[in-house]
Please model this.
Amino acid sequence: MKRIGDWMQTFTGRQFWVLDPRPEEICIEDIAHALSMQCRYGGHTTQFYSVAEHSWRVSSMCSAEDAMWGLMHDAAEAYLVDLPRPIKSGSELGSEYQRIERELQRVICERFGMSEREPPSVKVWDDYLLHWEGRDLMSPHPVPWFGEGTLELPTDVLVPVSPEFAEMALLDRFRRLSKYAEVV
Model:
């Protein structure tokens, strides 16, 4: 059967068609590894901080019923890479990216038995963490970020973990939250 677009090779050696994703081709090990190797904010942080760590932290902030969605909210980026918000939300490229991302996220939800609808709390914690990350992992802001100063952030400084730790933390959390084990 002919597939749409070309394929990429994943960390575990699979072929993956980003424009024609199928649930059985989604692999949590590929997601965890790829996200652990991607730096948030297009790499414009003061130190390496992975999308995997961000996802693990969002999941840890969510209620038990929303924790899996929190963990997987950026899972499509394992196959698409993280696109900075100004491009993602303010350009034609961003519009097309979001269309592809929505379809891929739908397939990821199907693969892991999740609702296709992101719980509102995930976005709340995602934005909260964005401000904590911005305070502790970015150079001083040239102008205030949206909502800056309106949130009570932890006094603890956010100290990033290694990519290897972030990968294992994401996998461990997934396995604890999941009702089925991933077969590689």
About this structure: Helices lie at 28-36, 51-61, 67-72, 77-80, 85-90, 92-111, 120-137, 163-177. The mean pLDDT is 93.
